[in-house]
Amino acid sequence: MSEPFVFDPRHSLCKTPFGAIPCGGNVTFHCRPLLSDGFQHCAVVLLGEFSGSEAHIELSCCGPEGDRLRFSGSAAVPLEPDLIWYHFRFWRDDGSGCILDCTGYRADGLVQPWQLTVYEETPTPQWFGDGISYQIFPDRFCRLAVPDPAGMVGDRWIHQNWGDLPEWRPDPDGEVRNRDFFGGSLAGIASKLPYLAGLGVTTLYLCPIFESASNHRYNTADYTKIDPMLGTEEDFRALCAGAKELGIRVILDGVFNHTGSQSLYFNEDGFYPTVGAAQSPDSPYADWFSFHPWPTDYDAWWGIRTLPAVREESPSYIDYIIEGHHSIIRRWLRTGASGWRLDVADELPDWFIEKIRAVMDRDFPDAFLLGEVWEDASTKVAYSRRRRYLLGRELHGVMNYPFRTSLLEYLRQERAERFQDAMETLRENYPPAAFYSAMNFLGTHDTPRVLTVLGADVLLESREARAGYRLSPGERDRGLRRLRLAALVLFTFPGAPTVFYGDEAGMEGFEDPFNRGAYPWGGEDRALLGWFQTLGRLRRDREALRTGCLRWLHAAGPLLAFARETEAEGLATVVNASLEEQRLTLPWPGGPAEDLLTGRRFAPAEGALELTLPPLTGLLLAEGSEA
Q1: Contacts with 84 (C-beta within 8 Å, 6 or more apart), sequence order
Q2: With b meaning 16 or more CB within 10 Å and e meaning fewer, what string describes 411-444?
Q3: I want to staple 339 with a disulfide (CB 3.0 to 4.6 A). Which of 261, 365, 368, 406 is the partner?
């Protein structure tokens, strides 16, 4: 069994500084075994994964501390980014002893080490993590007119009714081709900029907007053109300019691991007048793809033939996407975008991402590079290779799927300690700038709608049943109450709170495409929308919610409480995820407290607040208000 008082890397008595370390820095370790264990020596063993280094540093014996013996010592970390895995060895003068790792004492020769991230300190644009993001699936957000798909790539058809269910049934060939469009446009998004500003939004993250044969546009047909159903390059410029006037930036979705089979580059169906790789091995794009043999067999993303995989190492592809004067990265940042989100970052080589970052750092130093990563990005292994996303030369931040997973689990299963542990793992492993620049969210275009997840009691096996399912009144009421709590945590936790379009309006739906319905303009849940607007205002107005340090106050069972603190102010988020009333004694060394959500006031007694929390409720407490 682990003895946390021997060594706990998250406690300042055992390790300083907390968490990841900049290159060339120093870390100090303190171990405190029981005197009765009889250990006379202790060493820390550090193994560098990328460098292959190994160091054994004996810690000095500092003498007894009560019933414990303290060993202390410092180690210099490498000058280059690395992942250091470390554990401790204890031994006596007679040679007997054991090791200590994250599972506790053990003598079986196996080790489960702790992680120490060593990163290069490079600038991270602060505007992303400080702000509020809003993700839009462009076809489904706002249309100003029903478009005509004639002459556009792909066999498209248009829903005349904005409120239709997205098409989910296979076509006669058994394929789901995502050719049903609703006709949302860039001009439509621009018309709703005041609405987005009212939510406090400072960053628009747009799913792909480039010409494509499908409604999701992740099978790019031409990186140089806005999809004509969305509008024109001038429409994009106008959107960016209008957004900028309201303090809103735009991040684009870059799909650089694969293109569409119906694309200018592959051109399998001959739609484009130029010669694609599928038409001739002499095509200027032939080197972008791997055929074996040409043209009948080729590498495709996850084997999906409509998504031919790109050879990122092709010199002409690198020039086209990244390094050329008119590269895609440069082109759209010049046009008005403020950053890129890299789709399926796991599928892109580290060196490819590093090249993108280098161009952005050099020519667009205020632009933000975000990556789609579903796990802990500091330890991610993809295709048997450990990734280096957050070590300083690649991504500024990542999509925080662990935040979503652990928060929704807490709200449904009432295990706040698991949420705390998951978030502390990220806080410990990520460089601080990456932790505070994580894209936190409750749902995306790749996950079921959060209201459905938090409200549904059913497990539906058939897609037909999931397609038509709507929450019962009781399920919806419970889901809405949980969603309000989820949003409270989202907007008050470190990182960029990100709203998937329509979640603030109460949209429902299971997995793709049921989570991609059209925004219900005029049919929003007004009370829920007002809640999101309130949270957005508080995030905008309170510095502590944007930049404050995180301090955990309580995390057990249904009760979660944490503080965000700057030198000037401190705020505390308190949540009861239970269906029953709960009581909580919250340490409160300051004066009276006020709930910024309701105006309710509390007077502390003997340095604590005695709180009674009704079922599924939360508070956002501010210090220094008069009771």
Answers
A1: 46, 47, 48, 49, 77, 78, 115, 116, 117, 118
A2: beebbbeebbebbbbbbbbbbbbbbbbbbbbbbb
A3: 368
Pair type for strands 114-119 and 82-91? antiparallel
Residue 105's beta-bridge partner residues?
100
Q: What torsion, rounded to 10 degrees, do the Cα atoms 343, 344, 345, 348 define?
A: -110
pLDDT band at 459 (very low <50, low <70, confident <90, very high): confident
Q: pLDDT tens for residues 247-305?
A: 999 999 999 999 999 999 999 999 999 999 999 999 999 999 999 999 989 999 999 99
- 430: tokens are 């990520």
> Rounded to whole angstroms, what are the CA distances from 549 to 87, 309, 544, 569, 574?
28, 42, 8, 11, 16
Question: How confident is the model over 22-44, as a mean pLDDT?
Answer: 97
Q: What is the 3-state secondary structure (H, E, C) of 529-563?
A: HHHHHHHHHHHHHCHHHHHCEEEEEEEECCEEEEE
The type of residue at 284 is P
How does pLDDT run across 71-83, given as a tens digit for each residue? 999 999 999 999 9
- The continuous run of DSSP H or E covering 454 comes out as helix 450-455
| Closest C-alpha to 343, from 254, 259, 260, 263 | 254
**DSSP strand E in 66-146: where?**
68-76, 82-91, 97-101, 104-106, 114-119, 133-136
- Please tell me what DSSP assigns to residue 257: S
Q: In this structure, are residues 225 and 217 in contact, taking their beta carbons and an 8 Å threshold?
A: no
Partners of 369 in beta bridges:
340
Question: How far, in Å, are 80, 120, 387 from residue 83 at the CA level?
Answer: 10, 12, 10
Amino acid symbol at 299: D
SS3 107: coil
* Identity at 305, one-letter amino acid code: R
Q: Which residues of 16-43 are buried (b: 16+ CB within 10 A; e: fewer)?
A: eeebbbbbebebebbbbbeeebebeebb
Residue 137: closest CA among 68, 217, 59, 74: 217
Give the CA count within 13 Å in the CB-facing half-sphere of 561.
Answer: 21
Q: Interhelix angle for 328-335 vs 350-363, to 10°?
A: 40
| Element housing 22 (H / E) | strand 21-22
